[in-house]
Amino acid sequence: MVSGLHRFLTLVCAAAFAAGCDGGARLPDAQAQQTAVSSELSVRFETTADKTTTVSVLAFRAAASATEDSDVLGLVDPLAADAPDQGCLLRDTDVIINRLGVRGGSIDLQELPGVAVSVSAGTDLLRAFPRVYPDVAGVVSGVVAEGGQRLGAIPDRVSLHTTDADLPIAELAVPSLPTLLALNGSAPAAGARVDAMDGLTITLGAPAGALVELRPFGATVAISCSVPNNASTEASLTIPRSLLAHMSRGGAAVPVSIEVARRQRVRTPIGSAGTRVSLEVRSTLAVELHP
């Protein structure tokens, strides 16, 4: 399995473990729960500092009740969660799932069948196959479709296919990947020790509409930031130490993944009611953060 899917399952299982230890019973809502039905397809291209590039596909139908927002994909796959409109925020998957459980909410997943992605001409279609989704505290459960493979490079375009159509359902341009230029003024390097006592300033090239996320390894907490769409050819954002402190107990050094991404979301005619497609490029850099 490719690295992106491994990280996705690690985050989900960590959330399930922590939420399951809460000990509190789910409290049913006194009023009848309204259920929202949706279809989601996520295609993610991911590259690491050693130039390994992968593509992963996640597809499902969801029946969601008592959710606080419409970002069902972000609850199923924390890497796909909506970024803030501006600035940075702290997101904790455990808290979100626990809060949903207390309200008696749930997300029931079903496979979205017959989905395939073409990432380059002359290559086999990347198909999504059914997998049992790791049950998260009895709140999120069911079956999804997943697939993944290694690539030589991130393509310019992708085509979406279904098994009952000879021609592609849609062809989409892959977003360009922002460039991570500097961390606190120094060139980024895998495994580097980053002193964040005064916060962390991240400098990006081609930053307009970029997402920046910090994820401690093995944890369900993350810092998510966004860069305005009107940013110039180079821009910096600063994550304050007060926010970074939530990622480390007692101020100890913590290994984190600094991730830069760009994402677009569109509707396509896959399925009877249409499917929301999330197409994303993401780079990851592992460093040791000293907040």
Would you kindly provide a brief summary of this structure?
The protein is mainly beta. It contains four helices and 18 strands.
Structure commentary:
By secondary structure, this protein is mainly beta. It has one domain. The protein is 13% helix and 47% strand. The chain contains 4 helices and 18 strands. The strands form 3 sheets. Strands 1, 2, 3, 4, 7, 8, 12, 14, 15, 17 and 18 form an 11-stranded mixed β-sheet that branches. The protein has a 4-stranded antiparallel β-sheet with strand order 6-5-9-10, with no helix packed on it. A hairpin with a 3-residue loop joins strand 7 and strand 8 (140-151). The protein starts with a helix and ends with a strand. The model is unreliable at 1-6 and 8-31 (pLDDT under 50).
